[in-house]
């Protein structure tokens, strides 16, 4: 049995710089631009980053929070608590200051400075006075100037980023640079300097700063996706938007359609003609796709469906994260229909596993569901240079044109996979949701029903699920923790911390949830006394799946408040149980 | 029954006298006249009696779930514009469960022919009222008579942006063949409503035979209001109601592609570099 880990780029482990910063303001303050500029500068000087942001469902007026872990080490999670907080208003001060570390520092607008409490020091800054000369919307640039100098980020790197961002927009560049420098100079006049300065890590190879949604979009193009249809929905819309910009350059086509049923129907129509196709949605849209998932499975049409999960049911909290669509993804649609469910853990995974998703869809001619979530879709990470040949591209089996005389589209084979003819070539057939015989004609006989059901499910048995796991920590430990999807970094960091405290824990992250990677899971469970399953839902959906499929009983670490895990809270759970035996 | 190059070996499951036979015949004739290679044709359908039609023709066939024929056809045609894509189905499939797609597919003007066999009932499920059922129609699901305003598919199609709209009658097969042929050669979305009585559950042949009139020869097919007036008339006018030229979705997508290509890199490596 193979126990190889799903491939990951090595992450350096020594951390000279490791700080957690947070920016908070109202929607419209430019908090996300501020955060993005600062972390991009950090990535340029060789550091790793991991971001988490929360934002209101409203376009204007609600609270926006942007937290970034900046580290010369692996940056596995967003960090437990920020040690530096920059806020634009009293409301954001009061919303956020309680989360600060005990010796944390708050950069705050002068108007609100008197309300800062609990922090070792509050740095009052006249945000509006510094930025007003440069236009109403440059407050974030003045704050960026102070933050960059205070934290020790090279001025030239940020100026370069501003030049790139406002290339060919001279006036905007001048105003933004002006506001940035006003902040920078103000910080210098005050002589403010953070006790732990961000220092460059110059030896690191150049990396990319990508969000999960960026990586999914780019992975799709790399996989050969040339058709995308979608309907806007948080937090998946960026995939529709980015592909609308770039996919036509590859001769691909993007349609924003009227609903998610149209999206998946169009994807199936496109794939039927031989074009690799994808849609991306979140829970509400994914619910609507159920019937067509069954259709794609029944008619053996390859397709990729991204579900970036958010808090449900119903509208839930559209701008908060959760991992609560797992059982839906495994079972969506009436009847019984094979499909594959993948769950990337990192932004890097989002790229390579989207290619894997297309490969699996093509190879096994069935729907493949990629389960991301809001936190991963919007998370920014520094991704090592992409290796285009790490995941070789696969294409569906097509019939040998010379042997088409007796072509049977749904021929029963040993693997269950049968060659799929493409319109424009010979081998005409009907793809129908009605039970059909090998030629694709309706057939309701018990023999056909049983033979074709077995054929479709036989494909699932061929899938090499076992390589979609990652293990970490101490394999000898009697304590194990299993996670899936986006929670890997926080769990890994918790396991690291406990190891340093002399509490060894063994971790396993599942990246394919259907079919389950049975062999590595069973191997992982040998000798374990306590096994936890950590997941962001109330029901313990992965734990239920493990129990129903493998008869395993586990202990739950469930969180369902719309926020991702922190390493600290996972370590806390494990510490308590490990110490108490 | 006429046999031709496009007819498959399957025998239709429709009731004797069903309007769908005339629609099938007209479509087969149009294909035999325009002569695409059968393997370049994709026939798409949803669910219902009318949606059974693709099975009786030689081509690639996408027999989707109820109501989703149009978006599936759209995906197929956009992904490969060289294919001849034809969608068929009944008024329940296309206007009730698939009504949203009817509206939105038409306004995009893809080069697709859509044949709707309209009988006012759900024949396959044994005759419940459908979106085009006339007020007062008594069916199993409207035992005291239908109380809804019926949809007029042709008028709706003209309103939402179809570039070719026609109404045929299965009781006038000669005209229907000509209409479907015209629809087939139209560049862009062509919608053909076929008044296609359900002889088992809602036989309107006698009334239609008495009342249906062909569109007057002097009708200006480019005049939208005139087309609407005919479509909305108490008299069921049959013929081509509306026929204009407009850029197709595929032409517009091609021009977007040209714009996109000027806007930035067209290799994965080039795109990745933008995130460095």
Protein model, in words:
The complex is a heterodimer of chains A (581) and B (276). Helices cover 36% and strands 19% of the residues of chain A. With 581 residues, chain A is an alpha/beta fold. In chain A, the strands form four sheets. A seven-stranded mixed β-sheet of chain A has the order 9-8-10-11-13-12-19, sandwiched between helices. In chain B, the strands form two sheets. Chain B has an eight-stranded mixed β-sheet with strand order 2-1-3-4-8-7-10-9, with helices on both faces. A two-stranded antiparallel sheet of chain B has the order 5-6. By secondary structure, chain B is of the alpha/beta class. The N and C termini of chain B lie far apart (67 Å).
Sequence-ordered SSE layout with sheet pairings:
The complex is a heterodimer of chains A (581) and B (276).
Chain A (H helix, E strand, L loop, with lengths): L17 E9 L4 H14 L3 E7 L8 E9 L12 E4 L2 H7 L8 E5 L11 E5 L1 H5 L7 H13 L3 H11 L4 H21 L16 E5 H12 L3 E4 L6 H10 L6 E4 L3 H13 L4 E5 L1 H6 L1 H10 L3 E7 L16 H6 L8 E3 L4 H18 L2 E7 H5 L1 E5 L45 E3 L13 H17 L6 E5 L5 E6 L3 H13 L5 E5 L1 E3 L3 H8 L4 E6 L5 H10 L4 E4 L8 H13 L2
Parallel strand pairs in A: 1-4, 4-5, 5-6, 8-9, 8-10, 10-11, 11-13, 12-13, 17-18, 17-20, 20-21
Antiparallel strand pairs in A: 1-3, 2-3, 7-14, 12-19, 16-18
Helix pairs in contact in A: 1-4, 1-5, 4-6, 5-6, 7-8, 7-13, 16-19
Chain B lengths: L19 H15 L6 E5 L14 E4 L5 H11 L4 E7 H7 L1 H8 L5 E7 L2 E2 L5 E2 L23 H8 L3 E6 L3 H13 L4 E6 L9 H7 L1 E2 L9 H9 L4 E7 L5 H15 L4 H6 L3
Parallel strand pairs in B: 1-2, 1-3, 3-4, 4-8, 7-8, 9-10
Antiparallel strand pairs in B: 5-6, 7-10
Q: For the terminal residues of chain A, how far apart are their CA atoms?
A: 32 Å
Which oligomeric form is depicted? heterodimer
Lateral arrangement of strands in the main beta sheet of chain B: 2-1-3-4-8-7-10-9
Q: Percent of residues of chain A in beta strands?
A: 15-25%
Count of alpha and pi helical runs of chain B: 10
Mean pLDDT of chain A: 94
Largest sheet of chain B: 8 strands, mixed
Total helix count of chain A? 19
Q: From the alpha-carbon coordinates, what is the Rg of chain A to the nearest angstrom?
A: 25 Å
- The tally of strands of chain B reads 10
């Amino acid at each position: 049995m193979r126990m190889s880990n799903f491939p990951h780029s090595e992450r350096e482990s020594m951390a000279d710089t490791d700080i957690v910063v947070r920016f908070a303001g109202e929607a419209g303050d430019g908090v996300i631009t501020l955060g993005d500029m600062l972390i991009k500068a950090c990535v340029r000087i060789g550091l790793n980053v991991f971001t988490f942001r929360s934002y209101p469902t409203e376009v204007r007026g609600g609270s926006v929070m942007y937290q970034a872990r900046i580290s010369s080490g692996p940056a596995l999670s967003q960090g437990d608590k920020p040690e530096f907080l920059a806020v634009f208003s009293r409301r954001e001060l009061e919303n956020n200051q309680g989360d600060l570390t005990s010796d944390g520092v708050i950069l705050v607008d002068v108007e609100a400075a008197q309300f800062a409490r609990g922090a070792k020091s509050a740095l009052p800054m006249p945000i509006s006075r510094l930025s007003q000369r440069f236009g109403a919307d440059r407050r974030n640039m003045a704050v960026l100037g102070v933050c960059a100098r205070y934290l020790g980020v090279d001025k030239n790197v940020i100026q370069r980023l501003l030049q790139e961002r406002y290339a060919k927009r001279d006036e905007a560049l001048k105003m933004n640079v002006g506001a940035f420098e006003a902040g920078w100079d103000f910080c210098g006049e005050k002589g403010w300097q953070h006790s732990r300065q961000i220092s460059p890590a110059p030896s690191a190879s150049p990396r990319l700063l990508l969000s999960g949604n960026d990586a999914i979009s780019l992975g799709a193009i790399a996989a050969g996706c040339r058709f995308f249809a979608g309907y806007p929905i948080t937090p998946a819309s960026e995939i529709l938007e980015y592909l609308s910009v770039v996919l036509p350059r590859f001769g691909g086509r993007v349609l924003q359609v009227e609903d998610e049923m149209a999206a998946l129907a169009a994807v199936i129509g496109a794939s039927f003609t031989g074009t690799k196709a994808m849609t991306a949605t979140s829970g509400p849209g994914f619910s609507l796709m159920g019937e067509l998932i069954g259709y794609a499975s029944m008619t053996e049409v390859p397709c990729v469906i991204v579900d970036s999960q958010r808090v449900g049911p119903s509208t839930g909290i559209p701008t908060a994260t959760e991992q609560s669509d797992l059982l839906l993804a495994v079972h969506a649609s009436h009847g019984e229909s094979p499909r594959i469910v993948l769950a990337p853990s990192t932004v890097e995974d989002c790229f390579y596993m989207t290619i894997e998703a297309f490969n699996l869809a093509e190879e096994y001619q069935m729907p493949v569901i990629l389960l991301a979530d809001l936190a991963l879709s919007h998370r920014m990470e520094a991704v090592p240079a992409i290796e285009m040949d790490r995941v070789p591209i696969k294409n569906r089996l097509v019939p040998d044109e010379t042997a088409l005389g007796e072509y049977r589209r749904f021929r029963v084979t040993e693997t269950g996979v049968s060659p799929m003819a493409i319109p424009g070539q010979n081998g005409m057939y009907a793809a129908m949701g009605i039970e059909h015989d090998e030629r694709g004609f309706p057939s309701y006989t018990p023999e056909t029903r049983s033979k074709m059901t077995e054929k479709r499910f036989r494909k699932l048995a061929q899938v090499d699920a076992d390589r979609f796991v990652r293990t970490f920590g101490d394999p000898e430990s009697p304590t194990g923790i299993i996670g899936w999807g986006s929670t890997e970094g926080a769990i890994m960091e918790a396991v690291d911390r406990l190891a340093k405290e002399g509490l060894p824990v063994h971790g396993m992250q599942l990246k394919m949830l259907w079919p389950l990677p049975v062999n590595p899971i069973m191997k992982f469970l040998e000798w374990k006394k306590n096994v936890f399953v950590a997941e962001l839902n109330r029901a313990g959906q992965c734990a239920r799946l493990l129990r129903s499929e493998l008869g395993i009983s586990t202990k739950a670490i469930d969180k369902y408040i719309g926020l991702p895990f922190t390493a600290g809270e996972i370590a806390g759970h494990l510490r308590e149980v490990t110490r108490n035996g | 029954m006429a046999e031709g190059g496009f007819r498959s070996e399957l025998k239709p499951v429709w009731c004797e006298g069903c309007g769908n036979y005339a629609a099938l015949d007209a479509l087969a004739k149009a294909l035999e006249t325009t002569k695409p290679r059968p393997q370049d044709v994709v026939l798409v359908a949803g669910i219902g009696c009318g949606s059974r039609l693709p099975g009786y023709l030689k081509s690639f066939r996408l027999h989707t779930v109820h109501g989703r024929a149009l978006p599936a056809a759209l995906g197929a045609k956009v992904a490969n514009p060289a294919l001849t894509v034809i969608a068929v189905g009944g008024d329940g499939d296309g206007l009730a469960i698939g009504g949203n797609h009817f509206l939105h597919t038409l306004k995009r003007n893809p080069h697709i022919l859509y044949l709707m066999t309209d009988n006012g009932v759900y024949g396959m499920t044994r005759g419940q009222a459908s979106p085009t059922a006339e007020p007062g129609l008594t069916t199993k699901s409207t035992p005291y008579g239908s109380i809804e305003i019926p949809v007029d598919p042709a008028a709706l199609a003209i309103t939402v942006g179809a570039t070719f709209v026609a109404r045929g009658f299965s009781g006038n097969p000669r005209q229907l063949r000509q209409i479907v042929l015209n629809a087939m050669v139209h560049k862009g979305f062509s919608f053909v409503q076929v008044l296609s009585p359900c002889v088992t559950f809602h036989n309107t042949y006698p009334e239609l035979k008495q009342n249906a009139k062909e569109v007057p020869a002097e009708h200006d097919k480019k005049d939208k209001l005139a087309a609407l007036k005919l479509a909305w008339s108490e008299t069921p006018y049959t013929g081509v109601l509306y026929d204009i030229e407009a850029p197709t979705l595929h032409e517009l997508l091609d021009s977007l592609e040209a714009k996109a290509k000027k806007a930035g890199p067209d290799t994965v490596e080039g795109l990745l570099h933008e995130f460095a």
